[in-house]
Amino acid sequence: MRKLLVLALVGLVAQLIDGSLGMAYGLTSSTLLLVAGVAPAAASASVHLAEIGTTLAAGVAHWRFGNVDWRVVTRIALPGAIGAFAGATVLSSISTEAAAPWMAGILFTLGAYLLVRFARPLRTDRVGGRLRGRFLGPLGLVAGFVDATGGGGWGPVATPALLVSGRMEPRKVIGSVDTAEFVVAGAASVGFLIGLGTEGFLLPTVAALLIGGLIAAPLAAWLVRIVPAQLLGAAVGGVIVLTNARTLIRSAELDGPTRPALYALLAAGWLAALVLAVRALRRTRRARAEAVSASAAATTTAAGAPAAAALTASAASEVPADLAATGTPARR
């Protein structure tokens, strides 16, 4: 019972992170299950089965808050489902010994990507235009495959790619990715069911993760508007990197002073990423405040434009005829 309560808490925290960042539910949950000794295929299968419920709840919540672009959802979900089904089939056919370092390597890479991504200022400007299907289709296919084989990865692959495009509001990127993940999680679960059978799913674990995720889903859809993604992304990335580094170091059979040195190096990198994330967040807020001030100043100037125009007209009427004929520019 204690273990199930811990898993429910993990599901709750993972969904809060996922709903606020548009990523990391699978990464966080799968990482914990691997640390607990669960086989990689069973961990990914259980997480994806739980995600069917959590992503449905998250999608409904994001829809209610107006965070979903249905055009993007329809164009990214089907390729994502195909990629997830293929990834689940591949992972189901690999032995546990071979799959453990493979899955840990994917999770480690995605965690490192989160560190690098959120240590830099996030691009939130919109350049206009619409995202095309020829971009969304391959993106969904790759993200779905990585998600199933790594036990997570749909959000870390899809969300940053859509954010970098600059053609969607960040909250709509997160809401659309979370909503499309419902289809991806369902396809991955079908693939694991075919490859592993029902015994591949740890149903008590699924139930605990699902309960925690369902509780957190509505709150996460609201938090996406107020939580600083910069700090949250860097913090989660560091946890994922350090946790999965443990599996990779064991697989490489590194002993002696090498192991603590690697941990120290990774911890230092995590700390540096957090410092950079704080600085980037401050710069972003400062730039936003300056933009608001400039906009307010422009509004004030515009309000005084009629009076300025009247003065200009009066001055122009007093310009001598000889100066006006030479083309000397009058004040504007």
- Topology order in helix (H) and strand (E) letters: HHHHHHHHHHHHH
Rounded to an integer in angstroms, the radius of gyration calculated over CA atoms is 26 Å
**Largest pleated sheet:** none
Number of helices: 13
**Terminal-residue CA separation:** 78 Å
Q: Strand portion, in percent? A: under 5%
| Shape by Cα distribution | globular
Q: Outline the low-pLDDT stretches.
A: 307-332
- What do the pLDDT scores average to? 76
**Based on helices, strands and strand pairing, what is the structural class?**
mainly alpha
Key traits:
single chain; 332 residues; mainly alpha; 0% strand; globular; disordered C terminus
Secondary structure layout plus pairing:
Elements: H1 2-21, H2 25-35, H3 40-64, H4 70-92, H5 96-118, H6 133-150, H7 154-165, H8 170-196, H9 203-223, H10 229-251, H11 258-303, H12 305-317, H13 321-325
Helix pairs in contact: 1-2, 1-9, 2-3, 2-10, 3-8, 3-9, 4-6, 4-8, 5-10, 6-7, 7-8, 10-11
Report on the structure:
The chain is an all-alpha fold. The chain contains 13 helices and no strands. The protein has helices spanning 2-21, 25-35, 40-64, 70-92, 96-118, 133-150, 154-165, 170-196, 203-223, 229-251, 258-303, 305-317, 321-325. Helix 7 packs antiparallel against helix 8 (170-196). The termini are far apart. 46% of the residues are buried. The model is unreliable at 307-332 (pLDDT under 50).
